[in-house]
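Example 5.3 — ABC transporter substrate-binding protein
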Amino acid sequence: MPSTMSRRGFLAAGGGLAAASALSGCSALAAADDDPGTLVVHSQLGTTAPGSPTYLSALDRFRKENPGLKVRNLVNGDDLAQVYETSRLARKEPDVVMVNLYDKTLAWTDVGATVDVKGYLDDWGLRERVLPVALDAWTDGKGRVRAFPYFATNWPIAYNRALLDKAGVDRVPATGDELIAAAGKLRRKGIAPVTVGGNDWTGQKLLAQIIQTFLTEDEARHVYATGDFGGRCARQGLEYFVELRDAGVFADKAQGLTSDSMTTQFNTQAAAMQSAMSSALAKVPAEVARHTDVGGWPLAPGAAHDKPTILRTYTLIGFWISPNGTKKIDAVEKFLRFMYRQDTVSRFIKEAGRDMALRSDTVSSDFPLVAAAQRLGGDVSQVLLPDLFVPPSATQPLITATSTSFTRGTSAAKVRSVLEAAYRGA
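Solution (predicted structure tokens):
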């Protein structure tokens, strides 16, 4: 995929960052000061992120198996990409970066911030470990593999059957009309219907999913690559979203909710439905999971899909190799071979409920909703996750536009306007 950011653009963006305030004591800027016998890994795993305990345990095992090799783990949250870019500009970047393919990272390989790993993947005999669909997702339009694929995720809708039963809804809604009817019954019982983080990325993804109700995959790719929401089928999707929103399908004041408030509402049974990726499904309490089903988003008449829809992605976390990492490539190879081992992968599935972009027969037995989402298969239709196609400069403006979109009373024409405005200058 052609880059949307030039090398000059990357340097200009990075040069304007407030490095002193953005970087902590475990920052990546110190990475290049480590001795050649220290592998520096930069990750979001290590605090409260799902899978962190398993990851830290894996690092301990790796150190024990490789006593002559030190591993330094740098941890950042949502600001990881910005922190990494700053360290790269100073040529002090870590050797390996664990992050998703999204927003800023889409341009990294193209501008030389990270390297094409295709040769390493083949030379180390690890290609066969990767699901073909995951390898396709991490390969750009020039045939370069941006990173070693690792985490994936399913993104179905979670339905609390007990709350639906309490409201007199006798089955999981499969159509828009059934969803609107269910929302009315739930509200009369004081239960929020669909909770969603309308003020962050969770709302942006659900909005994109609903808009695609009448779009084929190729049409959806065009819409999200160009920001052209004016086609007939895209406008139908916008109108369907507005119809559902103004009928009260979404929780009150959804435009101000976040992913955290969304999961809290669902997990405390204040809301009956949520759009939940695997990491959210893994956090549903056992007493709630016992009476929760997972499925797709209900369809409208004339939809381009024959079954309710879900999102799915294989680009949640990959292992990116930096230019500094190529100077320690033997250590990087040992680390990646270890992380790709069946026993390591299985622990992430069993202990953390993570979906993987790698081949494995292990099942998330302690995470029944994650396992149920893995089994959905042909019961649902998959729509396009827009992350790989949205220009990086439009990513955050689209989230702002999402909040406006979830504000009740906003017309379909206005929703289209704010979405298209997010692309101006992209």
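Remark. Residues 1-29 have pLDDT under 50 and may be disordered.
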